[in-house]
C-alpha cells in the first residue's frame, strides 16, 4: 500500500488453469528463501494455494473451522488473527474455505463492498509485518476479485502458452481499466507459463503480447515441468521437491525480477 513498505501482489486471470496458484505459491517460496517476509492469501474456494503447503487433511481442517478467510471477510475481522505459519521460514498463509463460493453473496449487502479485504488487511500493513503479501485469485471477475484488486499494488497475470492461453485477456485488461478509479493496482507483468518447446506457442504468445502497449511481459517464463505437479502432489514448493529442476530455477529467476521491479 502507498506509504507502507509492504508490497501486495495479486495473481489474476479469469481463465482457469493459467498457472495463478502455481506461480503464487512458488514465487512466494522463492521470495521467502531470499529472506523476504511473505504472507500468502488463498482467495480461491478451490484451496489450491493452501494445498501447495499443507496436506489435504490439514487444508480441509482449516477450511472447515472458522479461522479462515471466509469468516474473516464475512465478519470484517482483522486478518492478523488468521495467520497460519507454513513449514517454511518467512512464509505465512491465510487459508481459504470452500465457503468462499458464497462470498459474492456475503459482500453484496456490505457498505463499501469493494474494500472489505483492504480494510481487513489494514493492521497487517500498519504493523509492517511483511515485505510481500501475495494473493491468489479465483478465475472470475466479480466483486471478490475487485476486492483483491483494490487491496493490491501490483497484478501479475499468468498466461498459458497455448492456442487459447490469451483468450479473454483483452477482457481482463478492459476490466482493470474499468476499475482504475477504485484501485491503484498496476500490472507488474504478464508471465508466460507452461511453455512446451515441442510446440511453437511460446513465440506466438510473446509476439501477440508485444502488441499490447504498456504491458510488461516478464523476461522469465516457466516451462512445462512434471516436477511442478509432483511437488503439488506432495504439498511442497517445486524447489523443495527438486532444487535442480528447470521450473525451480525459473521461479527463482522470477523472484529476482519481482524484487528488482521494486528497486527500478
Ligand atoms: N510449469 C508447469 N508444468 C506443468 N504443469 C503445470 C505448470 N504450471 C501449472 N501446471 C499445472 O496446470 C494446472 C493449472 O495450474 P494452476 O496453477 O492451478 O492454474 P490456475 O490457478 O490459474 O487455475 C495445475 O494442474 C498445475 O499442476
Ligand atoms: Mg488457482
Automatic annotation (TrEMBL):
User: What InterPro entries is this protein classified in?
Assistant: AAA_dom (IPR025669), DNA_Partitioning_ATPase (IPR050678), P-loop_NTPase (IPR027417)
Domain of life the protein comes from: Bacteria
Instruction: Using the record's annotation, list all stretches that form the AAA domain.
Output: 6-186
Q: Name one Pfam family in it.
A: AAA_31
Q: SUPFAM superfamilies annotated for this entry?
A: P-loop containing nucleoside triphosphate hydrolases
What's this protein's name?
Answer: CobQ/CobB/MinD/ParA nucleotide binding domain protein
Q: What is the lineage of its organism?
A: Bacteria, Bacillati, Bacillota, Clostridia, Lachnospirales
Amino acid at each position: 500500500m502507498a506509504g507502507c513498505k509492504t508490497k501486495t501482489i495479486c495473481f489474476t486471470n479469469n481463465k482457469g488453469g493459467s498457472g495463478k496458484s502455481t506461480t503464487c505459491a512458488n514465487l512466494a517460496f522463492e521470495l521467502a528463501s531470499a529472506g523476504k517476509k511473505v504472507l500468502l492469501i488463498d482467495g480461491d474456494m478451490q484451496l489450491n494455494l493452501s494445498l501447495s503447503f499443507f496436506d489435504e487433511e490439514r487444508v480441509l481442517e482449516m477450511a472447515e473451522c472458522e479461522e479462515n478467510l471466509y469468516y474473516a471477510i464475512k465478519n470484517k475481522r482483522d486478518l492478523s488473527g488468521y495467520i497460519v505459519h507454513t513449514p517454511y521460514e518467512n512464509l505465512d498463509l491465510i487459508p481459504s474455505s470452500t465457503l468462499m463460493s458464497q462470498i459474492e453473496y456475503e459482500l453484496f449487502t456490505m457498505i463499501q463492498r469493494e474494500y472489505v479485504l483492504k480494510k481487513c488487511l489494514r493492521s497487517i500493513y500498519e504493523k509492517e509485518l511483511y515485505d510481500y503479501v501475495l494473493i491468489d485469485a479465483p478465475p472470475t471477475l466479480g466483486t471478490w476479485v475487485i476486492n483483491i484488486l483494490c487491496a493490491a499494488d501490483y497484478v501479475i497475470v499468468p498466461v498459458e502458452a497455448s492456442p487459447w492461453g490469451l483468450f479473454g485477456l483483452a477482457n481482463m485488461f478492459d476490466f482493470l481499466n474499468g476499475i482504475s478509479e477504485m484501485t491503484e493496482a498496476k500490472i507488474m507483468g504478464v508471465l508466460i507459463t507452461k511453455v512446451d518447446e515441442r510446440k511453437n506457442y511460446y513465440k506466438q504468445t510473446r509476439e501477440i503480447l508485444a502488441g499490447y502497449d504498456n504491458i510488461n511481459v516478464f523476461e522469465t517464463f516457466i516451462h512445462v515441468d512434471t516436477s511442478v505437479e509432483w511437488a503439488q502432489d506432495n504439498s511442497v514448493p517445486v524447489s523443495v521437491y527438486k532444487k535442480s529442476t528447470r521450473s525451480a530455477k525459473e521461479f527463482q529467476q522470477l523472484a529476482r525480477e519481482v524484487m528488482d521491479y521494486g528497486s527500478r
